[in-house]
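Practice set, problem 2.
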Amino acid sequence: MTPTATAGLTTTKASFIELAQADGQVFIRQPYELYSEENHETWRQLYARIRPRWEKYANRRFLEGIEQLAMDPQNVPRLEDINRFLAPLSGFTAQAVSGYVPAYVFFDCLRQRSFPTTITIRDGGTLDYLPEPDIFHDVAGHVPMHTDRVFADVLVRFGEVARHAAELAREIPDEDERLRRVESNIKALARFFWFTVEFGLLRQGRELKAYGSGLLSSFGELAHCLESPDVQRFPFRLEWVINQYFEIDHYQPLLFIVDSFDHLFEQVDELERWMQAGRLNNVSPGEPKVDEADLRSFLDAGSSR
């Protein structure tokens, strides 16, 4: 069946995405003509209600990025329009994907200054939370940060660390030990990414601001993360971050603060040094779970070089 313009691109309900996944396509085009009026209305509602909270809680570079991208508050963005403004600023582009991207593939895209971007949008009846990423999370939460050259370089550097993890795996002769170490390394990388790129806090003068996309795309958690007494906020400590499990289905009770994006870049450098020294080979158990596809993506990358 060929998707029609009335089908829409609603998360978990889009026949275009189902067909792409069935065909094994990961990187796809953005079929803009398939967005329904309901999809655009959902974008309008999400954007309108969170904009005042961005002004209050988001870091300065994010707010500048929103303006630099000329993001349309009335309609779902066209990625080609976003990229026209984004690429000259940091070399990054947003690349449409059909859904889940295995961990190594995702991180290696960052190394190449390409951000895998979901093109569906959540149902208008569930504005507050959905477990799957959508275009509002990816474009309104992540992409404005990519306009900052230093932050963009952090993502590239992180992708390089992931590549080196795959290369190290190739050097381990015992298969069981290789699997164990790679799983531990992936868990450490995922935790670092979660507590920085997804849910990081930043010192901005005497204030704390949000820079993590999971915070910046959440109307409720953006205020909660900086106002609630239930949230523990600690200066970034690498040993804490890589050993701290997280869960995705509720507001985060523990967040970490970096002093600047230069500071964050230094922490990625330190992460690689720790990996090279074997200090990521035995991180604490617990979430996130490393599934077979993520594990295989690192093993295949390491074996193919």
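Problem 2, part (b): a different protein.
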Amino acid sequence: MGVSEWSGSLLEWENELSSLKERIGPVFRRSELRESCGAFIDGLLSGISRKTGWMMSGHAGLPGPWRMQALLGRSRWEADWLRDGIRDYVIEAVGCGDGVLVVDDTGFLKKGSHSVGVARQYSGTAGRIENCQVGVFLGYAGRYGQALIDRQLYLPRAWADDAGRRAKTGVPDDVEFATKPAIARRMIARNLDAGVRCAWVLADAAYGSDYSLRRMLEEREQAYVLAVRGNHYLASIDDGGIVATNPSELVGERADEDWTALAAGEGSKGPRLYDWACLVIPWNCRQGWEHRLLVRRSRSDPRKLAYHLVFCPVGTDLAEVAGAAGLRWTIEECFQRARGDLGLDHCEARSWHGWHRHISLVMAAAAFLARLAAELRIRAQGKQNKRSPNPGIDALPS
């Protein structure tokens, strides 16, 4: 294998990008819209600093931003059709039987109060309450990469109950107030119903604490690893009956031999190493399945613990469960790529449809990059690495 094969210089990215545009073309019934979509995606993939209508129009050689603005605004096309097409495109590229679905939300800082869904609310991006929009997202991660496959704007109750603001920003009549976990439930169910196969569903404590989400997944016999807080209410069963407890109390003081050192995926500084412990929770369960409490302990500070509720087939290995828990970071990588390179948070549209159209087009660009990365990884693994001929390297102790 030559350098050109594993470095990516032979990737036929222009053909792949043309293929993607052709594939999503039927979403846009008019040729002008298809051309605008192609120019919009080109702009997202370009090096321009802000993915605004004016700057992307300039990149495309257009005299003004009107075509780009029309693509997000007054034109007629269904963003959900594009979303579904991107989902299928991503699954073809990185899908595998042992992939995972990851749900999370992210904030979009805004000035003013006219953009749909904007309110003073917590933004995970900022780490505090800010004037922002919040979107709930679903990512898919497989052995060859990850990408976002679904999204929905969270509509605060003040917006959901305000007929005037709804009408002004084009919120559909069938969109009612829903909590973020409720949005996540529908999102996960929609993708499972569409045939997306996954080994695990992952989420942080904001979603893991939602009983309805866990119940929905259990009824589908879908394994999950969902984070919860240390004080999350649990009811365990012993000889005396039902005992109220929480993850922190259930774990208690555990001996050193109860912990197993395992890596939780690759981090920016190499493998992320933690200690793990797992115990079965005696809850009623479907035959062949069980509930567990998975605990992650920091190796540098044993007082730092993270808790996860697990639903899995009986006999599932601890390394499998810990490995799944460690993949929750993949959606953060999706956010970082989409924000840093593709303008996920550069949306100028104020309407419901404009937000979902912008986000879906960014997801299309991100899916294209994920497919190229997957192809590169597959090529790199096409031939086993040989032992380095460098004697200095060979002489290093193993």
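Answer key, part (b): The chain has one domain: 3-28+77-380. The domain at 3-28+77-380 is CATH 3.90.350.10 (Transposase Inhibitor Protein From Tn5; Chain A, domain 1).
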